[in-house]
Design brief:
The chain is an alpha+beta fold. The chain folds into two domains: 94 residues, no CATH class; 108 residues, Hotdog Thioesterase (Thiol Ester Dehydrase, Chain A). The protein has three helices and nine strands; from the N terminus they run βααββββαββββ. It has a six-stranded antiparallel sheet, with helices on one face. The structure holds ligand 3VV. One of its GO terms (cellular component) is cytoplasm.
């Protein structure tokens, strides 16, 4: 098994394949601020003990806010390009549920390039709860999948997850900083082998490996 990243320059520009691309730097700060505020809203709604009158007033305010911004929408497959990543490896889906910068359902997580692969820090609120006080196992798998897929993409080999294997080693707590790391460990034809971990206080709480398969791009 060898690591042979395909030259990044050989990847097509997604615009030439018909994708809408938004530069991350062009997203209005009012939008990213709104995303943050809606995250707070979701967490607050999930845990509130407010009385009926306040809840009804809040519902009406939210309905009013929806009316105010409902109109033209970006297409479902729109991509975002990060300026801190060189060229084609900087693309991701704008509303990706784990890391999409305009998706308030995604936690405030951002994978950064490191010497060995990718790394992110994230703190998950009670919105991501499974067992009491702990992160939902499905969400742990989702974060690992994102880190694994992004590590492959960042190495110039974007693909789809064919196989994902997760081991839950220790409970993953809510409301504390978690560290996520991922890297490519090998390639074989179109297959890219990747591994990733989630840590709390330096201790591994979950680890995953995946086989990403590079798909033939049209055109
Ligand atoms: C620059 C251009 C623009 C790009 C834009 C980039 C934007 C994004 C960038 C970056 C962010 C990334 C972040 C994302 C993270 C999240 C990822 C996900 O959630 S992905 C969604 C869930 N996964 C699916 O929906 C796949 C569904 N499955 C399939 O579509 C097919 O099964 C597919 C493509 C995986 C393989 O199908 P086949 O027909 O193309 O290929 P076959 O011949 O079956 O397999 C190829 C090789 O893979 C192995 N393989 C296939 N399935 C396997 C499996 N389950 N386990 C192990 N190996 C498997 C086979 O044995 C074969 O290996 P041998 O070369 O012969 O040795």
């Amino acid at each position: 098994m060898t690591v042979e990243a395909q030259p990044v320059s050989e990847l097509p520009d997604p615009r030439s394949l018909g994708f809408t691309v938004v530069a991350e730097d062009d997203l209005p700060t009012e939008l990213t601020d709104l995303v943050d505020q809606v995250r707070t809203l979701i967490d607050t709604v999930a845990h509130t003990e407010a009385d009926g009158a306040d809840l009804a007033a809040a519902r009406d305010l939210v309905a009013e806010a929806v009316k105010r911004i409902d109109g033209e929408r970006r297409p479902i497959g729109a991509l975002v390009h990060r300026s801190d990543f060189e060229g084609p490896v900087g693309f991701g889906t704008l509303t990706n549920v784990v890391e999409g910068p305009t998706n308030p359902a995604a936690p405030p997580m951002r994978l950064e390039l490191t010497e060995e692969g990718l790394r992110a820090e994230v703190t998950l609120s009670g919105v991501y709860q499974g067992p009491p006080g702990l992160v939902h196992g499905g969400w742990i798998a989702a974060m690992l999948d994102q880190a694994l897929g992004s590590a492959s993409a960042a190495a110039g080999m974007p693909g789809l997850t064919a196989n994902l294997d997760v081991n839950y080693r220790n409970p993953t707590p809510l409301n504390v900083p978690l560290e996520i790391t991922a890297r490519v460990t090998g390639t074989e034809r179109r297959k890219v082998f990747v591994s990733a971990e989630i840590r709390h206080n330096g201790e591994v709480t979950a680890e995953g490996t995946a086989v990403m398969v590079q798909v033939a791009l049209p055109g």
